[in-house]
User: Fold this.
Amino acid sequence: MPQAQARDMVIDFSAQGSPVKALGNPIKLSESSVTYRSPPPSLSEHTDSTLAALGYDSAMIAKLKADGIV
Assistant:
């Protein structure tokens, strides 16, 4: 982790009131910088929207959740 800190690769996000640290992009360009707009998603944060995009309706998603599949 010291090397990542020395290269300014540790990105601090705030999610649900507690700090979240993530590794940033290792590529450094002199003319442009990388921006980070949002923290990484929490576990299963996008499950419903991903399954819906794959064609699952809300009843099917609810069944998958009830069966402990997702």
In short: The two ends are 33 Å apart (CA to CA). The chain has one domain: 2-26+43-66. Residues 2-26+43-66 form one domain.
